[in-house]
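Sequence in, structure out. Go.
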Amino acid sequence: MSRGPARRRHVQDLVFLVIGVSTPIGILAVNGSAFIMLHLQEFRLGIAICSLVSGLCLNALGAYAALARAYAYAPRLYTEYRFWLVGIAVVVVAAWSVVGAWLTYISMQNPKHLPNLAAVLTAVWLLFLPFAVTFVSRRFKLLDHEPGLFRNESPGEGRNKRHQSPAPPPP
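Output:
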């Protein structure tokens, strides 16, 4: 048996598995959602706590990436102000997550008003900061610097060297 028919058979098996599993998972999701909607007052605090933990995890990853990027571009400056930078990051992550959890708790007051704008905006609020930090730090390269500004580099050294075209070969 050649690889072509075996690979095609594998793809067919995978497609049938996905199709076969999607309906039972959908039925469980719908029934779980209906149960939660009937007992929303009991689940409200748990959902808010999950929102807090989720916000802490996502925002901490974003803050960690931003701090690592700051260290990579300005190690001396980062080392000098490390406690301030980490402290500010902790306060921002905690505050953002607590506000998100509180808004989640508030938006889940009445199951007859769900889905509502407050719940959707809260979810967007919780997703905004980690993605914004990553996008801004990568896209706009706010932490880029001129060589020699933060390290003891001459203008020809450092990070910007890899962005230059390679030196021509010797004659």
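Check: Residues 41-153 form one domain. Residues 3-38 form the longest helix (36 residues).
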